[in-house]
Write a structure and sequence with these properties.
The chain has 15 helices and seven strands. With about 350 residues, it is of the alpha/beta class. The chain has two domains: about 150 residues, no CATH class; about 170 residues, Rossmann fold (3-Layer(aba) Sandwich). A seven-stranded parallel beta sheet has the order 4-3-2-5-6-1-7, sandwiched between helices. α11 links the parallel β2 and β3. The longest helix is centred in the N-terminal third of the chain and has 27 residues. The two termini are about 35 Å apart. About 15% of the residues have low confidence.
Length: about 350
């Protein structure tokens, strides 16, 4: 499969959009269990080459999230005084979600939303799904997308679940919520040619996944703020493929790299040229941001993602979301598939 062909990238963007909606909705308290299963199936369908089915499952996942969010909004916002407590900016955002006029006084916005909450299925869920998907599709590209059938009720949604005897590939984004987390299982779910951002307070599961990939006979390159000797001692990683990201001059045989983006890109490109099926790990994004402007780091990440997409390599980037503002995290998640292990 050509990972970089336009249709594959467009379908992947739809799945990414659905995945981000699921993650955000779960943080907002929405029941996303069914939406998670649907988006898992979308990812699995794309992985095995069933593109139309991947689109169908992704759209149904988005529809399920939209439906659940609407139900919660209707309950919460219908409470007496709930709308009045929102800021004007929050009211404008709600108006845009409901596709109603967002210009006006606060009292006018409140009244419009209250009226809309009393109406049924306006805009329709299918229209909102289409609008949500189109947010991630370049306007200058003609894209033919098979429309997912409308889902009328919960019972019909359940019909699309796979039979129990079939193996369903679970989403590594939710792996940390299981009672037993399996790094080897997560490693096998990663798709060569794609780039991931592993979101956790401290990079722990990141290195366990990396070690599991090494156990699958893959080679790897780590660029990390952690001394390679510590990585070897803590995770059983060989220090031969580890580079210390530091501004400190180090004597001896240890390989180091300065937090200079051009130097790091040269290091990565040299590795990719010699290893078409390897693992590239970057742990030190926050450190790079203290030495470079965010836009420069974002361009660096995007160039690296583009390079990876033309190979069978896997890129994993460590990120503690608390270290960045929400806008910066969102921009990174547009290019990197998020695996969320924040507790």
């Amino acid at each position: 499969m050509q990972r970089q062909d336009p249709e594959f990238i467009q379908i992947l963007n739809i799945i990414r959009r659905g995945q981000r909606l699921v993650i955000q909705s779960k943080k907002d308290g929405v029941d996303t269990s069914l939406a998670e299963e649907l988006i898992n199936e979308a990812r699995y369908a794309l992985k095995i080459g069933k593109r139309e089915e991947a689109i169908d499952y992704a759209k149904k996942s988005i529809m399920q999230v939209i439906r659940s969010k609407r139900e919660i909004d209707k309950i919460i916002l219908s409470e007496e005084g709930a709308l009045e407590k929102l800021t004007k900016e929050e009211l404008r955002h709600k108006c845009k979600e409901m596709q109603i006029e967002s210009l006006g006084l606060k009292s006018e916005l409140v009244e419009r939303i209250r009226t809309k909450l009393q109406e049924k299925d306006i805009p329709s869920e299918q229209e909102e799904v289409t609008r949500t998907i189109e947010d991630d599709i370049p306007q200058d590209e003609e894209v033919k997308i098979k429309e997912a059938p409308a889902v009328e009720d919960q019972a019909e949604v359940e019909v699309i679940k796979l039979p129990e005897e079939k193996t369903v590939t679970p989403d590594p984004v939710q792996a940390s919520t299981n009672n037993v987390w399996d790094a080897a299982k997560t490693a096998k779910e990663l798709i060569p040619g794609l780039s991931y951002v592993i979101e956790e307070k401290r990079p722990e599961k990141l290195f366990h996944i990396y070690k599991a990939l090494l156990d699958l006979d893959m080679t790897g390159l780590i660029v990390s703020r952690t001394n390679p000797k510590i990585l070897t001692r803590s995770y059983g990683l060989g220090d031969g493929g580890s580079v210390w990201l530091t501004g400190k001059e180090v004597k001896g045989e240890m390989t180091t790299v300065l937090p200079i983006l051009e130097f790091m890109m040269s290091l990565y490109e040299d590795y990719i040229e010699k290893n078409d099926h390897g693992i590239i790990l970057l742990d030190g994004l926050e450190y790079l941001l203290t030495n470079n402007k965010f836009n420069s780091v974002l361009r660096f990440i995007r160039q690296l993602v583009d390079n990876i997409s033309q190979t069978e390599c896997i890129l994993m980037v460590a990120l503690s979301p608390d270290a960045l503002d929400s806008t910066e995290v969102t921009l990174l998640e547009k290019d990197l598939l998020p695996l969320n292990y924040i507790e």
